[in-house]
Fold this protein.
Amino acid sequence: MTILKIILAVVAVCILICTVLHATYFKSAKEDIKPYGEMVTVYDGQMHINKMGSGKETIVLLPGVGVALPSADFGPLMRRLSEKYTVVCVEYFGVGFSSQTQRARTCENYVDEIRTALKSAGIKAPYVFMPHSISSVYSEYYASKYPNEVTAIISLDGTSTAYIGDDMPGFVKSLLGVAKFQQAIGFTSIAAPLVTNKNKLLSRL
């Protein structure tokens, strides 16, 4: 019991330290980072659109769930593709530099917001969508609704639309709860510098 109490105390202290740093140091550090691309007004908020290259064909990169800063995560891929294509990264509401929204998080609204953001940024159709994970669902819905605006979909480990259910699976709901807690205490901000070899990562870009 004594050992268990010590372990719980250590965990509680670590959570407290993470929470304090997340609310102070990392919050101020975030404010110093400027958007890489353009902020466009979409309904009740602003979405971040990052663009590279000037090729005739336009590739639109769409992030998956849990990608905190898609414009940076897709950076190496965007730089390589921009040598031949116009490459655009769309950051959804609540992700990256984009603001929050009060709109329902439905597939139809995601598609509507993607379309509005691209048009507001002056990115003309047709597009080659390159979605990651859940964004494959949005891309397929977009293509079915606006077929003349999509020339191809290149799925990056995409979520299958074969499964259709009215309710969110229980294991997904549990993961969302863990993710929200992790975000609230700022665990990722603390852990990332400890497990990432920055010099090795930059050498590969």
Notes: The beta strands are 38-42, 45-52, 58-62, 86-91, 127-131, 150-153. Residues 1-32+169-205 form one domain. The chain has two domains: 1-32+169-205, 36-162. The first strand starts at residue 38 and ends at 42.
